[in-house]
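Curious: why this fold?
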Amino acid sequence: VVANLNASDADIGENGKLSYSIHAGNNLGHFEVRKNGDLVVTASLDRETVAEYNLSIQVSDNGTVRGVTDVEVIVELIDERDENPEFSQHSFNISFLEHTPTGTTLVNLIATDSDL
């Protein structure tokens, strides 16, 4: 559960029953709102792919003339350590003279990590 959305309606009976839906921002289908207002994740999320979701959540009542309101919910993903660092190539061959002075740089190794 990402969040529990809690709306209220002063009407009684059917007019006071509320329905939640995601109105915008869920193009990838990663979220849904349950009948009780729980906003839940329905698919795996990856911070390196999408860092933030801007969801427009709509709540409406069941009145003959429907009352509707929207709220913006911003879901920001915090990066977790899920990517390993990698060298720029899998092996390095170097050659140097046997009397190379101590402290001489022989090779510069480059590694990158996709985690942000």
Remarks:
- The mean pLDDT is 89.
- The CA atoms of residues 29 and 42 lie 7 Å apart.
- The radius of gyration is 26 Å.
